[in-house]
Every structure is written in structure tokens, then in C-alpha cells.
């Protein structure tokens, strides 16, 4: 079966996490992704957090599936010529170097346009234009600057970063959407364009509801679904909301049977208004369904803490999976807190290709997260990440270089 992005060639100048997640998605949708790496070294993540000596790390392999790797020294004049040939042959150049690095290499937007006016140049940067535009940025810097850290954690503790890589992988996703959109516009404009996804912007986009709350707070001075209400104080900025659900349906994380020894024996429980009477029945508090202090969402808000404490008395008598089964029968929204071990072993995620076992020539078998976006006419087959420079000869031949020219360039250190 053909793939959605068949025929699209990506010059992948990305490294670490944000850029590689983007180009990996494009590869899964069928694009030919040619990863350009520094000879001898390659993407720094190849050797970071290694679990097997001298073998590409899981950090690298899990972010670079379905790509080809060529090594080029882009600061060597002959290496630059090879890169120029690639720019002429590709549709998209994706990069996430520190600000200015591509220009310093001699590949300004103007130069790239001279070489290929149809080229789309897509970049991840830490910040958009402004006071911080020249800063280097990693995941947690973006989480802090994008509003996630100040709104995550508990009121009596410091700001907290989340395990979800919303700065890196989140921005990679944003960039991928920008690229396919630019490719679509090119079908009628005939021109390339620049695509920028700043990590601060990507995180803020995912924290949209917190900017909503900032404005609600300024108007009313109080947000009744936050745990600070009615006993705590609201300041001038959106506070950390602990495990509150943030939407119109209050929720909290509750202990389940075994919590004393299992750090993940918890369930997320949502007191959704339409099923309130069923919740009362399940936990054995039938009288709450009609008691005016409990019967309506507005009446419940001032004592949510006590309500969740009562529900927890019930959840603590069940394992998270037992509770899930019972609550689902009554359409009560809830979710078990799954550990990474439980997720890795979950058969249904294997069946859908969300968790995939991949074989690698030097590492052997390992688990990875497959394509989370499923297209019915463009199925994803996850293949292993390339070894450093594994496809240099193959790609050089496709660019029209003879074996003699390739070996001369290799001797010159250009590739
Ligand atoms: C992630 C980041 C902090 C890493 O910084 P770094 O390791 O110092 O790497 P840089 O991006 O500065 O690139 C280092 C150099 O390698 C050079 N380089 C890269 N590939 C090369 C190649 N194939 N041949 C020769 N030189 C190469 C670059 O030109 C740059 O040189 P310069 O500083 O002399 O101009 C930085 O790239 C960054 O801020 N990126 C944008 C935001 C981002 O994506 N962050 C998330 C990462 S998950």
C-alpha cells in the first residue's frame, strides 16, 4: 500500500529530541528522511544515556526510526557542496540547531532559496523573536517558560515539570503540522516557505486553558473548581492546582487497594455531574443524591475535598482495575494510574502498534512507541534507526556521485 507522504524527501538536520520526533513522524507517513550527521560523532544522543557499551542508545533509536543516515562535514567546502546537492533534491529541510547555526554554516534562507525555491525550511527554536531569541533551550526550560511549570504541582510546593515531553516532542508535533501544511500550500503557490515552531509557543499552546484561567481569575478573583477554594488564598496568577481536573467536571487522584506498597495504586476519579446519582449509589452514600448540600455541582464545589475523601474510602477497598471495571459499568469517568511497566506489558497497545518491538543489528530487540496517529490508507511500519553513516554511499550515488568521487570526498574528510 502507498504511503501518505510517498515521494517527499526530507533533509533532516535535526538532533536531540524535538526535531527528530518531527522527522520520525514524517518518515512514518512515508517521507524519505535523510538524516545528516557529523562524521565520526553523529547525533549526540547516540551516546547519551547508554545502557549497552558502544551501541546506539535507546534515546537515539527510539527517536530516529525509518530514517537513513549520511555523514557530512558541513563546514568542509566540499562537504558544503554535497549539502547543496541535497538541498536541490529535497522538499523540506528540518533543523533544530541553536539560533544562527545554519546561517553560520552558510545556509541562510536566501542562499537556500537560490538553490531551491521550492524548499520548505522548518525550524524548532527555543523562543520566537524577542528578548530570548538567541538562547539555547532544552525541554524543561520550555516547560518553565511556556507556563507549564508554574501551573503544575501542589500549592504548597515549588513549580514542577511534567514527565510528558511537551517542550521537545510537543514542539516536534507542532512543527510536523506546519511542514505538511506548507507542503499543501506549495501545491498551489509553487513556492517554499519558512516554518518556525518555538518551544515556548508550543508549550503555551498546550497550556491554553491556564491562560483562560488567568483571565477568569482577574475578573472574579476566585476559581471555584481549584483546590484553593474555599479554604485557601488566590494570588494574582493562576495557582498550581494539584490533581484537580481543570475542566467543569471536578476530579482528583484517589488511593486504591495496595497504595501502601505500590506507588501507582491510584485511580483518577471524575465526579461528572450527569452520573452523580450513580456515584452516590456505588460508594454507598445514596442520600447525597437528594441532599441539597450535595445534589448539584454548585453545592458540591465548597466541599469537594470531603467528597473525594469519602469516595476514596470506597476506592481503597478495590484495586485500581477492579474500581475501573465497576465504575465503567455505570459510565463513571475514571482512569487507572498506569506505570511504564504496566504500559509496556499491555497487550492491546501491542495489537494497535502503539507499542512496537523492533530488532536492531547491534542492540537486539527493544520496545518503542509506534506512530500514535493512525491513517487508514497509510499504515505505519516501524523500522529500526540507521547506524551512523549507514546510507552515505547509497545517498551519494542517488545524488550522482561516482564511487571514485565518493572515495575522494571521504579522503578529504568531507563525508
Ligand atoms: C539543543 C541545543 C541546546 C544543543 O546545542 P549544541 O549541542 O551546542 O548544538 P548546536 O545546535 O549549537 O550546534 C553545534 C554546532 O555543530 C555544528 N554542526 C552540526 N552538524 C554539523 C555537521 N554535520 N558538520 C559540521 N558541523 C556541524 C553546527 O553548525 C554548530 O556549529 P556553530 O556553533 O559553530 O555554529 C541547541 O541546538 C538548541 O537550542 N536548539 C534549538 C532548540 C531545541 O531544539 N532544543 C531542544 C533539543 S531536544
Automatic annotation (TrEMBL):
Top EC class of this enzyme: transferase
Keywords: Transferase
Binding site for CoA: 17-18, 38, 96-98, 104, 136-139
GO biological process: oxalate catabolic process
Binding positions (substrate): 247-249
GO MF, one annotated term: formyl-CoA transferase activity
Listed EC numbers: 2.8.3.16
Pfam families: CoA_transf_3
InterPro entries documented for this protein: CoA-transferase_III_domain, CoA-Trfase_fam_III, CoA-Trfase_III_dom3_sf, CoA-Trfase_III_dom_1_sf, Formyl_CoA_transfer
Entry annotation: catalytic residues: 168 (nucleophile)
Catalyzed chemical reaction(s): formyl-CoA + oxalate = oxalyl-CoA + formate
Keyword Protein biosynthesis listed: no
Gene3D superfamilies: Crotonobetainyl-coa:carnitine coa-transferase, domain 1, formyl-coa transferase, domain 3
Pathway(s) served: Metabolic intermediate degradation; oxalate degradation; CO(2) and formate from oxalate: step 1/2
Role summary: Involved in the catabolism of oxalate and in the adapatation to low pH via the induction of the oxalate-dependent acid tolerance response (ATR). Catalyzes the transfer of the CoA moiety from formyl-CoA to oxalate.
Family, as annotated: Belongs to the CoA-transferase III family. Frc subfamily.
Complex formation: Homodimer.
NCBIfam families: oxalate_frc, PRK05398.1
Protein name, as recorded: Formyl-CoA:oxalate CoA-transferase
Species whose genome carries this gene: Paraburkholderia phytofirmans (strain DSM 17436 / LMG 22146 / PsJN) (Burkholderia phytofirmans)
Lineage per the UniProt record: Bacteria, Pseudomonadati, Pseudomonadota, Betaproteobacteria, Burkholderiales
